[in-house]
Amino acid sequence: MGQTLVEKIIARAASKPTVRPGEIVTCKVDLAMILDSGGPRKVWPRMKELGVGVWDREKLIVVTDHFVPAVDAETAQILKISRDFVREFDIKHFYDMKGIGHIILAENGHLQPGMFTCGGDSHSTMGGAYGCYMSGFGGIEMTGVCITGEIWTRVPETIRVDWSGKFNQAVVAKDIMLHLCRALGMDNAFKAIEFGGETVRNMSMSERGVLCNMAAELGGEAGVIEPDDITLAAIRAAGKEPAPDALKWRSDDDAVYAAKHAFDASTLQPQVAAPHAPSNSGPVDDYKGKKIDQAYIGACVGAKLSDLHMAAEVLRGRKVANHVRLLVAPATQKVYADAAADGTLGILTDAGATMLASGCGACAALGAGVLSDGEVCISTTNRNFQGRMGSNKASVYLGSPYTVAAAAAAGTIADPREFLP
Amino acid sequence: MSIVSGKAWRFGDEINSDLLAPGLYLKSANEIMAQHCLESVDPTFAKSVQPGDVIVAGHNFGVGSAREQAALSLQLLKVGAVLAESFARIFYRNALNFGVPCLFFPQYNEISAGDKLEVDPVAGTIKNLTTGKGYTVDPIPAHLMEMITDGGLMPHLKKKLGKGRAA
């Protein structure tokens, strides 16, 4: 009986020839990432209490992205703890205010097919776009990882999700995920999601990242995509050499899945998720005309260079509606610089966008751009739970960068296809 | 781990991490965060919950963020156990690591707010003293039992590392 990609990676990390879903194994971690929010501020006091240090200064990556830049004494202290931690343990890879961790890992070539990796944030699943296993954990469990370099897992069953067909205009990976949140539900806990099919094969790494990122919204342990030449090219573009056996990391033809789903991308319309859950989604036409106060282009899932390009396509030569504020927080400083160099930034600011620092910020009500009572926001982010972006009396709609940019220009939720040539 | 005894607090489906630990207070001390736990759905909860009280909810409890405060707040409020139709994975793991027992409970709808419950997380038994009904559910997974009976990950690690006192 064959194995899925996820089973193969877990077996390798657990030093076993094979594993089966349901089995509980302890895995050696190839790479771990902790962030300012649930990282050093949570982990370090516990390490002190136990009198132990970091298991591997080269394999533990530290990123500050949640509370950057500091806005008050509390956030300044959280960031200072991260910097002191890095000095204390001589952490090799520290990205201080360089951008959102999930994108930083990709930009700097830290991910390779077949790796078993952990992150201190639920959207760590994004790493699976590189054909590795990456799962999110809370600060308490990352404490154990930081000390021992190990974590237990119950081998998840894998759900295979195939997409075929070509996208319509202004339909992208984000629309796939908003649709899947409704179609598959958000409670696929203790399962992994493997994405495939012709539509996924034709996607850039940036778009594949959206699928794996929002595997977290499906409730998955991990989201994975089998590596191919596009994966290897992205690793090389980040200045690293793929492992010689990188392409062997794929599911067997006779692998056993918990379920297999097939979808047709050519029938998918731009999607919007209404308050207060990503699964509360439907075609954009169902929400057309809803007046908005804020449009937000940000977060790991929705502010990569390709996302800013989508927004610029819509906003070129247009202005943001008078009553709307458009906030743009490029996912990383590299994205910011690249968008400045290729003219994208100019299009957005000409339209009236307010640029914010790279980081998690408004997405999780941590930094600039939070919402007040009664306000309505449409956002490229991945979650719209009640209170997610600030007031618990605010409403957050989710959409692709195309859809969010179109709403910013119209002042109401609008069909992005009407804003494209 | 001792038997949990307390009053039931009833919540619905998909009680998410932003409801359990609102982002606006993520930067704050844990004790401050805990006072805002679930305030968007029940403003009286954090003020009125008593040690040993039991949360009873529908499916996908804890869905969303990895923020450990979602589970830690329940520990600080001395919630005795969470019984839900199903749990989101990161919350489930966080909660067990903090020594907050989580049990999958398909018959959650048979419990009313205020019912007096007795829960044995090790045996996997639930008694509703108000209605007189008893239930058997899957106990805490065996591989986690030692950690849970130690009181969570930290006491467990202390014991393993032979430092400090075991809980």
Question: Could you characterize the architecture of this molecule?
Answer:
The complex is a heterodimer of chains A (421) and B (167). In chain A, 30% of the residues lie in helices and 19% in strands. Chain A has 421 residues and is of the alpha/beta class. A 5-stranded parallel sheet of chain A has the order 4-3-2-5-6. In chain A, strand 14, helix 10 and strand 15 form a beta-alpha-beta unit. Chain B is α/β, with parallel strands linked by helices and 167 residues long. Helix content of chain B is 29%, strand content 18%. Chain B is globular, with a radius of gyration of 15 Å. The N and C termini of chain B lie close together (11 Å). Chains A and B meet through helix 2, helix 3 and helix 5 of A and helix 1, helix 4, helix 5 and helix 7 of B.
User: Helicity range of the residues of chain B?
Assistant: 25-40%
CATH homologous superfamily identity of chain B: Aconitase, domain 4
Tally of alpha and pi helices of chain B: 7
Secondary-structure class of chain B: alpha/beta
Q: Main sheet of chain B: which strands, in order across?
A: 4-3-2-1-5-6-7
Helix and strand arrangement:
The complex is a heterodimer of chains A (421) and B (167).
Chain A: H1 5-13, E1 24-28, E2 31-35, H2 40-50, E3 60-64, H3 73-89, E4 94-96, H4 101-107, E5 116-119, E6 133-136, H5 139-148, E7 150-154, E8 157-164, H6 173-184, E9 191-196, H7 198-201, H8 205-213, E10 222-225, H9 229-237, E11 259-264, E12 271-273, E13 281-283, E14 294-297, H10 305-315, E15 325-328, H11 333-341, H12 344-351, E16 354-355, E17 376-379, E18 395-398, H13 401-410
Chain B: E1 4-10, H1 17-20, H2 30-34, H3 45-48, E2 54-57, H4 69-76, E3 81-84, H5 89-97, E4 102-104, E5 116-120, E6 125-128, E7 134-136, H6 142-150, H7 153-161
Parallel strand pairs in B: 1-2, 2-3, 3-4
Antiparallel strand pairs in B: 1-5, 5-6, 6-7
Helix pairs in contact in B: 4-5, 6-7
